[in-house]
Amino acid sequence: MIPPMLKYLIKQLFTKPFTNLFPANRVPNDTSAFLAKGKITPPIPVAENYRGKLSYEHDKCIGCYSCIRVCPANVIKAVTDKDGKRKIKMDVSKCTFCGQCIDVCPVKCLHSTPEFLLADYDKKSKNLTLE
Amino acid sequence: MDKIRKTQGGEKMKGTDIVSSFKKKFGKKLLESKIEQNGKIKYDVVWMKIPKKEIVPAIQQLFTFGTPHFAVISANDYPDKIELVYELSVGWGEKAGEILVNIKTDLAKKDLKIHSICELIPGALISEKEKQELFGVKIVNIPDNRNFFLPQDFKGHPGIKKDKRVDMLEVE
Amino acid sequence: MSEFTLPVGPVHPAFKEPIQFKFKIEGEKIKSVDIDMGYNHRGIERAGMKRNPVQIIYLSERICGICSFSHPFSFSRAVENAVGIEVPERAHYIRTIIAELERLHSHLLWAGVAAHEIGFDTVLYLVWKNREKVMDICESITGNRVHYGVMMIGGVRRDLTEEHCQKLSKAMEYYNETLTAIEDVFLNEKTIKMRTQGIGILSKKDALALSAVGPTVRASGVPKDVRVDQPYAAYADMDVKPIVPEKANGDIFDRVWCRLVEVRQSIQIIDFCLQNIPKGDTLAEKNIVKLLADLSQAEGEGIGRHEAPRGECTHYVVLNKQPNPFTWKARAPTYNNVLPWVPMFKDAEIADIPIISASIDPCIACADRVTIVENNKTKTLNKIDLHKKSIEKSKRLKKCQ
C-alpha cells in the first residue's frame, strides 16, 4: 500500500519553494556593486494595518496626559519643554506597539508607521526616543 | 452515570434548586446567598458563603447534582482576613445547562487553617498547594506537602501584598 | 534534593518551558512520576494589581503567545459581567471570528509539533507551510501575527471591512482543500498510528476526578465544552456540538482526531459568522477616558470564561471603587491538565515521554530536564537525548513490520 505522504512528497518536487530567502548570507562590503550585479528577490511588503514604530507631532500635542494613563508599559513620561508647555517623551525600547495611546489621543498627534527595523547598540539613542 | 440530574418534571436545573437544597441542609450556617444572571442566553451564577468548618460537607452536597467541575480556588486579601472562593460548576454536558457555583469562606489572619477537599476532588491539589505556599494558609490533611511553584527550601510567603499604589505621572 | 534550572524567559509560541519531572523506572517501563513547576512564574497577577483595567488587557495578552486571544477575551467578559456592560452584536461576531482563527493556527501548530516529536519532520513542514495563510490574514486584520491587541472592554478596537471579509472567504476555501491532505496523512499513515494508538491512556473516571479540560478530556469521552454549556458571543446563535469520538479510548490517537475535526468545525463557524454578521457599532463606550472613569467608580465581582484551543480559560475580577482592581485571578487551561499526566505515564516507555507530554498541548510546556532514578542512581537526560530516543523507537518499530 502506498503511504499517503508519498503523494504529497512527489507533488512538492515540482512546486516552487515557499521560503522567501534573504538576498545574501552576509552584508556585502560594497552594496552598490552587489545591487548592480543582478536582481534580488523582492521583500514581502508590510501589511497595511501593521503597527510599527510610532511618530509624534510635537506642536499638535496639548499635554492632556491621557496617553500616560492608558499605556501598559510605562513608556511615556511627562515633561515640560523650553517654552514651559506640557509635552511628552517616549522611550521606544520599552514600547509594546499596542497602539492604545494612538486611540485615546484627542488631537491625533500620534501615528503608527510601518517601520520595524529598530535594532541599536544604545537604548537611549536618538532613534529610540520620541519627543 | 455522571450525567446532570434533572428535577422532577424533566426540567433543567436552576440556581434556585441549588440554593434551596443548601438552605435545607445547612439552615442558619448558610451566611449569604445570591443568584445573578449573565450572558446573552441567560445562565445562573450562584454565590454562597459558609463558615470554614463546613467546606467538606458543602462540596459533598454539590455531588448530589452530578460530578462538579472544579475550576480554581481564588483568594481575596483583606487587611484582617483572607477570603477563599471555591469556583465550581455543575450541569455541564447539555446545551446552555451549566450553572456556576462559587462558595466563599473567611479565614481570619490569626488562624489560617482549613481542611483539604482532595478526597472528594483529587484535581484540587495544585490550587491548594498554591494557596499554601503563597498565602501561608495551612491545609489540613493535604496528600502532598511539598512546594509546587516555589523552591523547596524557600522561607516566607510572597503572596499578594497590598503596596502603596505607584503613581506613573512623574513630571520632570 | 531540590534541583534548579534557570528560567528561560517569557513564553514564546512553540517554545518549551522547563518543568521538572522525576520518574521511577524498572528496566524501560515507567512506574510513577513526580512533577515540579514554577520556573516561569512571573508574578503577572501582582503586576496587574498596579494597573487599571484597560492596561491589564495588554498585560493579560502577554501571558502566552499561542493562546494570546483567550486571556483578554476572558478578562473582558469578567469585567463586563461584574459591571453590567452590554456588548454590541457586531462586536460579538468579530470576537468569535478572531477566536476561531486563533484556534485554527494553534491546532495546526500542535499537529506539526506532535509529528516532530515522533520524528516525522516532513509532516511538520507540510503543516506549518499551510499555517502561514492564517497568520497573514490575522496580520492584515489586526496588525500583528500574534498578540493581536484587538480586544477592549465593551467591544473590539478594529472593524472588519469588505476587503477583509473577501480575503477571509477565500482563505476558508483554501483551507477546506488543504485539510483533506493533512487529515489523510495523520489518520491513515502507519507510522503515526503505530506511535499513538494505545499509548498515554486517560480513562473517563480519572478525567472526571482530576477535572481535566479541553480536547484532552473530550478524547476520553466526556462532553465538556464552554461553547456548548454556556453559549456566549456568536456561539449563542448557532448550534455547536462538542467533538467526542464514538468509541473513546482516551489515547493519543483520539486527541489527534479531536483536534483535526475541531479545525473543520472552526472553518464552518467562520463561514457562518461571515454570512450573518450584522451592521452596527463595535464598541459600547467609545471614549476610553470616560470608560476608565466609570470603571473606577464601579463595584462588583465577575467571572469570565472562554473555550481556548487548550481548554477552559477562567478569570475572576473584583472591583471596589478604586482605579485598580482589588483582585485578579487568571487561570490558564493547562493548570488543570498537569495532574492527568500522572496516570498517562504509567507503564509507558522512556522513548514515549516526548509524545505523551506533548499530547495535552501544554502551553507552559514540556520537559526540559528529566531526571531518572534507577537503583538509587540518578541520570539526567535533556531534551535532545529524549528526542533521539523517540526517533530511534520509530525506526525500530518500522523495521519489525
Structure explained in plain terms:
The complex is a heterotrimer of chains A (131), B (172) and C (401). Helices cover 21% and strands 15% of the residues of chain A. Chain A is of the alpha+beta class and 131 residues long. Chain A has a domain at 54-119: Alpha-Beta Plaits. In chain A, the strands form two sheets. Chain A has a three-stranded antiparallel beta sheet with strand order 2-3-5, with no helix packed on it. In chain A, a hairpin with a 5-residue loop joins β2 and β3. The longest helix of chain A has 10 residues, at 4-13. The radius of gyration of chain A is 23 Å and the shape is elongated. Chain B has a domain at 15-110: NADH:ubiquinone oxidoreductase Nqo5 subunit (Beta Polymerase, domain 2, 2-Layer Sandwich), CATH 3.30.460. Chain B contains three helices and seven strands; from the N terminus they run αββαββββαβ. Chain B has helices at residues 15-26, 55-62, 125-135, and strands spanning 32-38, 43-49, 69-77, 81-90, 99-108, 113-115, 138-140. By secondary structure, chain C is of the alpha+beta class. Chain C folds into two domains: 20-40 and 337-399, no CATH class; 44-336, Orthogonal Bundle (Cytochrome-c3 Hydrogenase, chain B), CATH 1.10.645.10. Chain C contains 16 helices and nine strands. In chain C, strands 2-1-8-9 form a four-stranded mixed beta sheet. In chain C, a hairpin with a 2-residue loop joins β3 and β4 (155-156). The termini of chain C are far apart. Classes of the chains: A alpha+beta (131), B alpha/beta (172), C alpha+beta (401). Chains B and C meet through β3 and β4 of B and β6 and β7 of C.
